Amino acid sequence: MAQYILKRISYMILTLLVVIAMTFFLMRSIPGDPLASLARALPEQTKANFYAKYGLDKPLFQQYLIYMKNLLKGDLGESVVYAGRSVSETIVQTSPVSAAVGGLALIVGLIVGISLGIVAALYKNSWPDYLVMFIAILGITIPVFVLASLFQYFFSVKLGWLPTSGWGKPQHMVLPVIVLCFGTIATYARYIKSSMLEVLGQDYILTARAKGLSEFQVITRHVMRNSMLPAITILAGRIVGIFTGAFVVERMFSIPGIGFYYISSINNNDYSMTLGTTVFYAALFVVMQLIVDFVYMLVDPRIRLAGD
User: Fold this and answer.
1) What's the whole-model pTM score?
2) Is there a contact between 152 and 164 (Cβ–Cβ < 8 Å)?
3) Angle CA 140–141–142, to nearest 5
């Protein structure tokens, strides 16, 4: 077990290093720099001071080494566009907002999606199954920004039930949560239905029924547990998705989450902010992936660590 954990941590570190390097050099390959427009009207010496402050006057590889050295100290740098704003402080202040909206959307999506998937599997080729699959198709095919616009129009503009945008009150979370949970509902409804149908056709299910177990006991004791494995597989991606998938939603509903600042940093070529948030997302993903592997072993005793 210790060897396995060390091996996975090594892979995690390697993945993060690759992501950081790719993001760093790709950001530098974009034409222009974050100070080009800001320092345009300033004297030459002032411009030089600005570039020296953020290390943009040094060779590219030297900039990379300096960034990695600071990163090892836990310093993600300072925003280039918003002077005086620390990247670490921005992540600490904004990530709880994204987690609140996205986390609630994930919980709602999991509960509704798993429930709909179970209904679709138990009532295969009947109207409940067709209705669930129709909802799943809508959740997958309709873009988030279209769904958000429709909800804002009907529930805010036409009916006046909920605010169009803003933050600070419980009602501000309703529309963003509904919009965000649609993708999770659609994904889990399809996965759970497919997984349950596969498990229901296994020999041990026939054996359980032959022993006289009721259909409720068969479903709860045998089918449900083994059907959860595909759902756990995609859970890491969905957890990270509560941060990354909320970019457009946070923008459209004026939610001051981390996604809002991430999009702004990309548009403004804010190197430090883009790199810092990318490191945060990448670290979150690899950690969640490791946790999912352990949950896998807890849910299914048949899964054990092999020597290779």
Assistant:
1) 0.74
2) yes
3) 105
pLDDT digits (tens, 9 = 90+) for 19-60: 888 888 887 777 666 666 555 556 666 667 777 776 777 777
Count of helix runs (H) and strand runs (E) in the chain: 14, 0
The tens digit of pLDDT for each residue in 213-228 reads 777 777 777 777 777 7
Q: Helix (H, G, I), strand (E, B), or coil: what is residue 138? A: helix
**Coil/strand/helix, residue 212:** coil
Q: Find tokens 């605010």 and name the residue.
A: 163
Question: 13: which 2 tokens?
Answer: 């570190």
pLDDT by residue (tens digit) across 185-198?
888 888 888 888 87
Query: What's the CATH number for 92-299?
Result: 1.10.3720.10
Say how many CA atoms lie within 13 Å of 258 toward its Cβ. 31
The span from the CA of 86 to the CA of 84, in Å, is 6
- Residue 285: DSSP 8-state: H
What the block records as the tokens of 246 is: 């909320």
How many whole angstroms separate alpha carbon 123 and alpha carbon 153?
Answer: 35
Per-residue pLDDT at 308: 46
3-state secondary structure of 78: strand
| Cα-Cα-Cα-Cα dihedral sign, residues 4, 7, 9, 15 | negative
Burial (0-12, 13-18, 19+ Cβ within 10 Å), 238: buried
Beta bridge partners of 160: none
Confidence at residue 152, expressed as pLDDT on a 0 to 100 scale:
86
Report d(CA 102, CA 245) in Å as an integer: 8
Do the beta carbons of residue 179 and residue 110 sit within 8 Å? Answer: no
Report the interhelical angle of 258-267 vs 235-244 (nearest 10°): 70
Domain boundaries, the chain: 92-299
Residues 90, 79: contact at Cβ < 8 Å? yes
Total Cβ atoms within 10 A of residue 102: 31
Q: Which pLDDT belongs to residue 121?
A: 84
Cβ neighbourhood burial of 44 (10 Å; 0-12, 13-18, 19+): exposed
